[in-house]
Amino acid sequence: MKPLNTDRISIISVLPLLLMHTVTTVLVCYSTVSWFAVSFGVFMYYARMFGISAGFHRYFAHRSYKTSRVFQFIMAFLATSATQRGPLWWASLHRVHHKHSDDLEDVHSPIHRGFWWSHIGWLFVKAYNSPSTENMKDFYKYPEIKWLDRFHYVPPIILGFATYILGSILELKAPSLHTSGFELLTWGYFVSTVVLYHGTFTVNSLCHLFGSRPHNTGDYSRNNGWIALITMGEGWHNNHHYYQSSERQGMYWWQIDGSHYVLKFLSFFRIVWDLRTFPKKTAPVDTMEESVALPAPAPAIEPQATV
Ligand SMILES: [Zn+2]
Ligand SMILES: [Zn+2]
User: Do residues 93 and 107 make contact, with C-beta atoms less than 8 angstroms apart?
Assistant: First the structure.
């Protein structure tokens, strides 16, 4: 097995991510804060986490349900507004992750290169900045999806402006909310987006390190209820690695799976349909214990990266 070539690390690849963190820090220092702005930021976090979870992940990467072309675009637009690049890029690298889970060709396994690599370090690799999206050919026939993937900065810019305009209108029309355009832009877009980065990244990092493993998946994926709460259900990651094509990732009523609830609701109106699920007969009894032995790791390798 050939390790991925990581000797081309580029700061430019990750400049937007670094800029987002820097600008957010500066804005927080100068912005006012109100309950409305923070609540709006939390809403924007979960709305766009739904886009990432139900859109980029469960639909574009795994095709675990069907929908119309219009709603497909809406989901892609919502998820792209999370500022985590476009649908083809995101889902393509995720398909590579499943193909090579925790082996040496996994894009972001914490097993070989550690927590920080899996959480954020892999984004510095030039090759992952513009990978081949050959494994996403099933979506090539949609020019609007290809456009969105190419011009992935458009939805975040629109969202940023919309948030600023909304805050400015509320400042004039609803002064009792004590918000403003600048404040809502800071908390509703920038802070929300940076927290959303790390919420999403925990699935790649912590969900391969901490939690239970009821299924023998041959990798290190784990179920983590805390991460499920902040990722609209993505924390049931061991379930997901076992039943990759299942739209539903929480297998029991107590395994909170926000994206599944919303998609189920949308299915009542035929906005989405053919939600795939796991075979009930083979569902194991989850004990919340580490019930399956860990696989032997592949030989560790040293990153050959140079900045
Ligand atoms: Zn997946
Ligand atoms: Zn995984």
Answer: yes
Higher-pLDDT residue of 283 and 255 is: 255
Q: CA–CA distance from 261 to each of 186, 193, 258, 304 (Å)?
A: 30, 23, 5, 43
Residue 62 CA, ligand 1 centroid: distance in Å: 7
Residue 94 Cα to ligand 2 midpoint, Å, equals 8
Q: What pTM did the predictor assign? A: 0.90
CA distances from 186 to 18, 47, 190, 240 (A): 16, 17, 5, 34
pLDDT per position as a tens digit, 162-187: 999 999 999 999 999 999 999 999 99
CB proximity list for 175: less than 8 A, separation 6 or greater: none
For residue range 31-83, what is the model confidence (pLDDT) as tens digits?
Answer: 999 999 999 999 999 999 999 999 999 999 999 999 999 999 999 999 999 99
Ligand 2 centroid from CA 36, angstroms: 35
Q: Are 267 and 124 in contact (CB under 8 A)?
A: no
- The answer to whether 206 touches 55, Cβ cutoff 8 Å, is no
Model pLDDT, residue 294: 63
Return d(Cα 190, Cα 270) in angstroms, integer. 34
**Token pair for 189:** 């877009």
